[in-house]
Amino acid sequence: MSTRTARTAWNGGLEDGSGQVELTSSGLATFDVSFPRRAADDAQGTTSPEELLAAAHTSCFAMQLSATIAEAGGTPVALEISEDVTLGPDPAGGFRITGAVLKVRGEVEGLTPEKFEEAAQDAGRSCPVSKALSGVDITVEATLD
Description:
Blueprint: E1 7-11, E2 18-22, E3 30-33, H1 35-39, H2 49-71, E4 75-89, E5 95-109, H3 113-126, H4 128-132, E6 138-144
Parallel strand pairs: 5-6
Antiparallel strand pairs: 1-2, 2-3, 4-5
């Protein structure tokens, strides 16, 4: 299987520093990061590990869900997945990812709403990024259009 690479260049301390995250393998983009913007409600044009994690997880989940729908006998027509990943205090000190909520809307042929929900929950447990996040409380909310 493949290996992908990202790189971050950081200058300064936690509160006054900033950096750039580069998607090295694809060369598609470089994004600004900073801790004050990471912890703020308004990102003001910067990304964060949580946003990048949500991007990774939603794309992985979409691929896995398309497979679980097919395994259940359905045909995925269109899937839209969003995710809220929350950063919060860690009781042991510092910060941690405190939760993730995947929200999926699907247009699927050949599945009942119950079977779609079952496929979505299965994808939430079985996608590789979900497995990597095994220490995080992940919730899947599925709606069949």
